[in-house]
Structures are given as C-alpha cells and as structure tokens.
Amino acid sequence: MENTREKLLKIMGQVRPGVDFENCPDLVKAGVLDSLMTVMLTMEIESSMGVKISPLDVVPDNFRTVDSICALIERLMNK
C-alpha cells in the first residue's frame, strides 16, 4: 500500500513530468510550481486522495517542498 508521500510523488510526476521534486529545495521559488501548476496539482490531490483543499490553504508555504505538501495532505486527512 502506498503512503502519502509515494502517492503525492506519483501525482506530481503526472502533473509535471521529468522534475526531481524530492531534491528541489523550493518548488515555488524554482518555478517548478507556478500558479497554474499549483491549481492543477491541487485538483489532482483532491480527486486522488479524497481531501478538500481550501483556497486558504493554497499558499506558497504549503507547496514549497514535497514535505510541506505531504504535511498539508496529512493535516487535511486527519480533520
């Protein structure tokens, strides 16, 4: 069974193929996740992982790294 991180990396790879997400220190600053990519990623996370991400949660700090996105997902799953 896949854990949250593995599922997230699979989703991220589908939304933005060919990017080494785990070794990027800041996905937002590096331009890997711009506003359009963030919206696309949010939609995929919601449909694949069964969480609802509020527009208030779609802020750069929650999408800077794989770890910060995982923390957001896990927080929402535990609500």
Describe this structure in words.
This protein has 79 residues and is mainly alpha-helical. The protein has three helices and no strands. The protein has helices at 4-15, 35-49, 66-77. α1 (4-15) packs across α2 (35-49) and α1 crosses α3 (66-77). The radius of gyration is 11 Å and the shape is globular.
- Order of H and E elements: HHH
Radius of gyration: 11 Å
Task: Please report the distance between the alpha carbons of the first and last residues.
Answer: 22 Å
Low-confidence stretches: none
Instruction: Name the average pLDDT.
Output: 94
Q: Determine the strand fraction and express it as a percent band.
A: under 5%
The major pleated sheet works out as: none
Q: Return the structural class.
A: mainly alpha
Number of helices: 3
Structure keywords:
3 helices, 0% strand, mainly alpha, 79 residues
Topology:
Elements: H1 4-15, H2 35-49, H3 66-77
In short:
The chain has 79 residues and is mainly alpha-helical. The chain is built from three helices and no strands.
